[in-house]
Design goal:
The protein is an all-alpha fold and about 210 residues long. Helices cover about 60% and strands about 0% of the residues. The chain has a two-stranded antiparallel sheet.
């Protein structure tokens, strides 16, 4: 239960943080690399304070981690530090700078577990169950739906823009559309001529 609570709180923090990041990036006053550098600079003192409390004070984590096996340190430093901590965050912030957070964040945070499942199966020998395979397939399907363009969207206008017409022409709002005329105006005729009301129209004589 605690794990789920911490995961939910982490998701809430990430959601708020990335919205703030998106706002800052779209102001065009800050770039993605600057944003991640500033974020890391602000977070680092807090992380080391938490480390001192948890490891040195409360002794909830091993304090002899510098003497851990070399593969463990390499995985932590290169995989978690450089790949996930630096490269992934620079790429993620660059994506936020260019795209919509409602698309970028779900793609990034669903590709991650799918990649972990596949690498764990191929490299670490973890079991690949039907449930895991279906979950990975659904993740990839969701990413495909998010990245699909068009999708039958209905065009809408802002500021009087033109609406594409199925025949290729562009109709503008309130323009170029034949309308019924009032007060004696001409009414378009299917044959091309424009008879006026009460004029030029053959009548039956009694």
């Amino acid at each position: 239960m605690k794990a789920i609570l911490f995961a939910v709180l982490a998701g809430l923090c990430w959601g708020v943080g990335e919205v703030c990041t998106k706002y800052a990036l779209h102001s065009r006053q800050v770039g993605p690399v600057t944003a991640i550098a500033l974020r890391s600079t602000v977070a680092l003192p807090v992380l080391w304070l938490a480390y001192a409390i948890v490891v040195r004070g409360l002794r909830l984590e091993p304090a002899a981690w510098p003497r851990a096996d070399r593969p463990v340190l390499l995985a932590l430093g290169l995989g978690s530090g450089l790949v996930a901590g630096a490269a992934a965050m620079i790429l993620f912030y660059s994506a936020l700078n260019l795209g919509e957070i409602s698309v970028v964040k779900p793609i990034a945070f669903t590709i991650a577990p799918a990649t972990a499942v596949l690498i764990g199966w191929l490299a670490l020998g973890e079991s690949m169950t039907v449930r895991k395979a279906v979950a990975v397939g659904l993740i990839l399907l969701g990413v495909a739906l998010l990245t699909a363009r068009g999708g039958g969207a209905v065009p809408h206008l802002r500021g009087g823009g033109a609406v594409p017409h199925p025949g290729g022409a562009e109709l503008r709002p309130h323009e170029d559309v034949p309308r019924p005329h009032r007060g004696g105006g001409a009414v378009p005729h299917p044959g091309g001529a424009e008879p006026r009301p009460h004029e030029d129209v053959p009548r039956l004589h009694k």
